[in-house]
């Protein structure tokens, strides 16, 4: 029973992704997914948080469009859930944007919508600066954190810890995204940056404490990293703790659905992981549904895929 718990469309992430949301769902069915979590980015509320492509023709217009777009997204997601229910199980979610602590209240408010099944807790900014947009912005974030990558990593995991404690996401997105533009993304944190590693372990313990899941996110592989998120030493520590993994392609268009799934599954199996976790909506009567955690063996996951395993 293959699935993704992390996906995006160009319809609701214009300039950031490609393709209509319905086309994403149709392609997910084609490649053998049995469940897809729709996780468009949540709206932001400050002009300072817009990305470069959102600044034209008008930053104010771009910012004003974000909340209505989220409402439209939920409406479309509900339509698609009903339309394709016989073919695929659709979960409706969003990717949280913890840019600063003031976003916590908005994340909780959006998560309370009855249409929303879960949300992904993600950090894309440190000190308010995007860390995964391009190398130039990453360098700005390094400067804002004292001028060293070690300082940036420490700040990133401190802000992540605040997010984890405040909103307790069921799914923690790309746990170590901060390494994407690092000069040495494969650096052994445990040996080289003791303070960073202590923060990593602390954050994993927080997630384990409230019962959250780490996603094995294969997008890092298509962006040139040698390992999926999280990197091996972090994943091994999570396994040692008895933590659970979910799985996601973090696709930003039809072409990325299922990208590097073979490598991601093999990566987890190499650490002794045999099962992945997802959610299932079950009707309880009166139009109500409950969410149930569901374990899927990697063997079963792989068997349902119809991908070219290259």
Q: Mind explaining what this structure looks like?
A:
It is built from 11 helices and 11 strands. It has helices at 21-30, 59-83, 103-111, 135-144, 149-167, 189-192, 194-210, 219-222, 232-241, 261-269, 298-303; strands at residues 2-4, 33-41, 89-95, 118-121, 125-126, 129-130, 171-172, 213-217, 244-248, 275-285, 288-297. The strands form 3 sheets. Strands 1-2-3-4-7-8-9 form a 7-stranded parallel β-sheet. A two-stranded antiparallel ribbon has the order 5-6. A two-stranded antiparallel ribbon has the order 10-11. The longest helix has 25 residues, at 59-83. InterPro entries: Histidinol_P_phosphatase_HisJ, PHP_dom, Pol/histidinol_Pase-like. Keywords: Amino-acid biosynthesis, Histidine biosynthesis, Hydrolase. Its EC number is 3.1.3.15. Belongs to the PHP hydrolase family. HisK subfamily.
Summarize the structure.
With 310 residues, the protein is α/β, with parallel strands linked by helices.
CATH superfamily of the domain at 94-303: Metal-dependent hydrolases
Structural class: alpha/beta
Uncertain ranges: none
CATH class of the domain at 94-303: Alpha Beta
Instruction: Characterize the largest beta sheet: strand count, sense, and whether it forms a barrel.
Output: 7 strands, parallel
Gap between N and C termini: 20 Å
Give the integer mean of the pLDDT values: 96
Strand elements, count = 11
Going across the biggest sheet, name each strand in turn. Answer: 1-2-3-4-7-8-9
Shape: globular
- Portion of residues in helices? 25-40%
Order of helices and strands: EHEHEHEEEHHEHHEHHEHEEH
- Please tally the helical runs, counting DSSP H or I stretches of 4 or more residues: 11
| Quaternary | single chain
């Amino acid at each position: 029973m293959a699935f993704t718990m992390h996906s995006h469309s160009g319809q609701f992430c214009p300039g950031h992704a490609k393709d209509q949301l319905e086309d994403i769902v149709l392609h997910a069915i084609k490649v053998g997914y049995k469940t897809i979590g729709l996780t468009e980015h949540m709206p932001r509320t400050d002009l300072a948080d817009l990305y470069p492509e959102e600044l034209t023709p008008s930053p104010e217009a771009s910012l004003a469009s974000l909340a209505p777009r989220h409402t439209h997204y939920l409406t479309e997601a509900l339509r698609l859930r009903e339309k394709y229910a016989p073919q695929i199980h659709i979960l409706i979610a969003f990717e949280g944007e913890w840019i600063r602590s003031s976003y916590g209240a908005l994340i909780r408010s959006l998560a309370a919508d009855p249409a929303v099944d879960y949300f992904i807790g993600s950090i894309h900014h440190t000190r308010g600066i995007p860390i995964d947009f391009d190398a130039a912005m990453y360098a700005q974030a390094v400067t804002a954190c004292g001028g060293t990558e070690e300082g940036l990593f420490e700040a990133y995991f401190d802000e992540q810890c605040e997010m984890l404690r405040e909103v307790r996401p069921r799914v923690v997105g790309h746990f170590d995204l901060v390494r994407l533009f690092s000069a040495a993304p494969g650096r052994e944190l445990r040996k080289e940056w003791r303070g960073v590693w202590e923060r990593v372990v602390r954050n994993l313990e927080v997630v384990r404490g409230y019962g959250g899941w780490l996603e094995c996110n294969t997008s890092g592989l298509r962006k040139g990293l040698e390992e999926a998120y999280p990197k091996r030493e972090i994943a091994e520590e999570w396994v040692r703790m008895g933590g659970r993994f979910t799985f996601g392609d973090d696709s930003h268009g039809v072409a990325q659905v299922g990208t590097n799934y073979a490598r991601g599954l093999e990566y987890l199996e190499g650490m002794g992981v045999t099962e992945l976790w997802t959610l299932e909506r079950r009707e309880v009567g009166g139009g109500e549904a409950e969410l149930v955690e569901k374990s899927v063996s990697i063997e079963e996951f792989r068997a349902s895929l119809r991908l070219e395993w290259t």
